[in-house]
């Protein structure tokens, strides 16, 4: 063996050892739903104990909004070397049971949505009293402090609704149909009320539908539009409802325009194509990410985020003028 080769052998072995450590780190589990990123997946980006956290939402099966929330939560869990246990139910009693399950499992932190505060709030408070860090996201902003939650990540739905109403008024809307897809959801009621406040004298009518049955949503919206030709704007409160409303408008022979809260990849293309005028974006990925990241911070060094105030992730508007800036992220399931 030459002297030159012997001189580089220790350095080569050291590099191989480091590469082996990188590979080992890249193969650790992330918890939650299996998910592979463009680099083939990866373990935690920090050298801290592996904690277990739960996220309990009111997301309904098939609602793409919650895929975005969960994607953000999973990315934060991966970065922070956390095991994430995600569960959801649109039914308040079942969602409360899921929070109880998290408490019984002695998780290290809980992120929870509270669309029906009187049902979910007491259970969240129970977790907090048990010494589990609890934060809220998406729904329940007005009362999260009452139930002992240390932080909240989302948008003020009344403000978001008012800004949407102002935009509808600027566009000349005279009769707006606000479609609520989860009856009893206080956040959705607040959106429609805000639209009434902001729409400058336009008539705002509420239509209740079952958001878990999009075929039924389409037929109900179509029937309403066929019955009342004065409706000139349909305001969905979630992207899938807005997209089927596009079909309902065509089938009813209506001239109504469509707008919505929230986005997904298909909705982005609908805005590009002029089928949907705009979306009110509350950045669901960011809500999921920040909620889980804050739980890690609470365990890491006792940090709280927001200084006693909710951290606002919206509202902002996505329309034909700026839709291209989020199009790539939307295709990847991040916006």
TrEMBL record:
Coiled coil: none annotated. It is found in: Cell envelope. This is Substrate-binding domain-containing protein. It comes from Corynebacterium anserum. Its main location: other. Residues 60-297 form the Periplasmic binding protein domain. Keywords: Signal. InterPro entries: Bact_Solute-Bind_Prot2, Peripla_BP_I, SBP_2_dom. Residues 1-24 form the signal peptide.
């Amino acid at each position: 063996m030459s002297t030159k080769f012997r001189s580089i052998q220790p350095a080569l072995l050291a590099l191989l050892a480091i590469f082996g450590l990188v590979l080992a780190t890249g193969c650790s589990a992330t918890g939650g739903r299996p998910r592979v990123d463009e680099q083939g997946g990866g373990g935690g980006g920090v050298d801290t104990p592996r904690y277990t956290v739960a996220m309990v939402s009111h997301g309904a099966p098939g609602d793409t909004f919650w895929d975005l929330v969960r994607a953000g939560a999973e990315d934060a869990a991966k970065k922070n070397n956390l095991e994430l246990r995600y569960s959801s139910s649109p039914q308040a009693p079942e969602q409360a049971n899921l929070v109880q399950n998290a408490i019984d499992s002695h998780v290290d932190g809980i992120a929870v949505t509270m669309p029906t505060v009187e049902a979910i709030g007491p259970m969240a408070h129970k977790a907090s009293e048990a010494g589990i860090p609890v934060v809220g996201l998406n729904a329940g902003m007005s009362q999260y402090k009452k139930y002992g939650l240390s932080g909240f990540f989302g948008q003020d739905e009344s403000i978001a609704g008012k800004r949407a109403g102002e935009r509808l008024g600027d566009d000349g809307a005279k009769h707006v149909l606000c479609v609520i897809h989860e009856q009893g959801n206080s956040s959705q009621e607040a959106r429609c009320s805000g639209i009434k406040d902001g729409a400058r004298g336009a008539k705002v009518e509420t239509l209740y539908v079952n958001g878990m049955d999009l075929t039924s949503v389409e037929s109900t919206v179509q029937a309403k539009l066929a019955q009342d030709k004065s409706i000139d704007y349909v305001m969905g409160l979630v992207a899938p409802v807005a997209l089927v409303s596009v079909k309902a408008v065509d089938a009813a022979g209506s001239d109504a325009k469509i707008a919505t809260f929230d986005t997904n990849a298909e909705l982005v293309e609908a805005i590009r194509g002029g089928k949907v005028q705009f979306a009110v974006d509350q950045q669901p990925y960011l809500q999921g990410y920040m909620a889980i990241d804050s739980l890690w911070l609470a365990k890491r060094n006792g940090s709280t985020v927001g200084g006693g105030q909710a951290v606002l992730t919206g509202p902002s508007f996505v329309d034909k003028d700026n839709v291209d800036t989020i199009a790539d992220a939307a295709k990847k399931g991040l916006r």
